[in-house]
Design brief:
Shape: globular
Bound molecules: adenosine-5'-diphosphate, adenosine monophosphate
Oligomer: single chain
Order of helices and strands: EHEHHHEHEHEEEHHEH
Distance between the termini: 10 Å
CATH class of the domain at 2-115 and 179-212: Alpha Beta
C-alpha cells in the first residue's frame, strides 16, 4: 500500500492522508510537516527551507529528495506509506521512481484531490494548524471543539505564515507550473485516480477508500 496524495496546497491532502494512515496503520510522510518540525527545532535544514516556504516557493529538489528516499526505506515503511506533499516536481517524481526501482518496488496509487482555485483560497485562509502534532482544522468547515486549541494534543492552533493571502496566490501559481504536470506523469505510469475534493471530508475519504480499499 504505497500511496501518493496529489492536489493543490489546501486541497485536503493532509486531512485525508492522516485518516488513511490511521486506517491502514502505515506512516504518513508529509514533507511540509518535516520542514516545519526542522524550523521549530532550528536545524540547518530548517534554516535552509524557511525562506522558500515563507515566500510560497518550493524548497530545492536536492534538499527534499534524499530526505524522502531515506525515510521510505525505514523499517516502519515495510508495509507501505502515504506521501503527502511529495513529489512536487517532475525531478522529484523521477527520483522517487528510481529509488523504488532500485529495490524492485513501485508506487501503487497516486490520488489527485481536485479542488478549484477559488475554494483553495477560501480553505487556506481558514486553515489553522497545530504546531504541536501537525493536525489541521478549518475555522468554519472543520473547527476544533474549543476555539484556538488542538483537539488532539491541546496545543495552540495558528494561521501558518504561508497561508496568509499574499503568499497563497504564489503557492497556487507554483502548484500550476511545477506540480500539476505530475498528474500526467502518474497517468502515464497507470496509477492515477482522481477524487472530487469539494465534497465533505467524510465523502472524500469514502471515495479514496473505494480506490485503495
Ligand atoms: P493540504 O494538505 O492539501 O494542504 P489540508 O488537509 O491542510 O490541505 O486542508 C486544507 C484546509 O481545508 C484545512 O483547513 C482543512 O481543515 C480544510 N479541509 C480539508 N478537507 C476539506 C473538505 N473536504 N471540505 C472542507 N474543508 C476541508
Ligand atoms: P505543505 O505543508 O505540503 O503545504 O508544504 C509547505 C511548504 O513546504 C511548501 O510550500 C514548500 O515551500 C515546502 N515543501 C513541502 N514539500 C515540498 C516538496 N516536496 N518540494 C519542495 N518544497 C516542499
Amino acid at each position: 500500500m504505497k500511496i501518493i496524495m496529489l492536489g493543490a496546497p489546501g486541497a485536503g491532502k493532509g486531512t485525508q492522508a492522516k485518516q488513511i494512515a490511521d486506517k491502514f496503520s502505515i506512516p504518513h510522510i508529509s514533507t511540509g510537516d518535516i520542514f516545519r518540525a526542522n524550523i521549530k527545532e532550528g536545524t540547518e535544514l530548517g534554516k535552509k527551507a524557511k525562506g522558500y516556504m515563507d515566500a510560497g516557493e518550493l524548497v530545492p529538489d536536492e534538499l527534499v529528495c534524499d530526505l524522502v528516499v531515506d525515510r521510505i526505506q525505514k523499517e516502519d515503511c515495510a508495509n507501505g506509506f502515504i506521501l503527502d506533499g511529495f513529489p512536487r516536481t517532475i525531478p522529484q517524481a523521477e527520483a522517487l521512481t528510481e529509488a523504488l526501482n532500485a529495490i524492485g518496488q513501485k508506487m501503487d496509487y497516486a490520488i489527485d484531490i481536485e479542488v478549484d482555485d477559488a475554494q483553495i483560497v477560501e480553505r487556506m485562509g481558514g486553515r489553522r494548524a497545530c504546531l504541536g502534532c501537525g493536525a489541521t482544522y478549518h475555522i468554519i468547515n472543520i473547527p476544533p471543539k474549543k476555539e484556538g486549541i488542538c483537539d488532539r494534543c491541546g496545543s495552540e492552533i495558528i494561521l501558518r505564515d504561508d497561508d496568509k493571502p499574499e503568499t497563497v496566490q504564489n503557492r497556487l501559481n507554483v502548484y500550476h507550473e511545477q506540480t500539476q504536470p505530475l498528474i500526467d506523469y502518474y497517468k502515464n505510469e497507470g496509477i492515477l485516480s482522481s477524487v472530487d475534493g469539494t465534497q465533505p471530508m467524510d465523502k472524500v475519504f469514502a471515495d479514496i477508500i473505494g480506490i485503495v480499499g
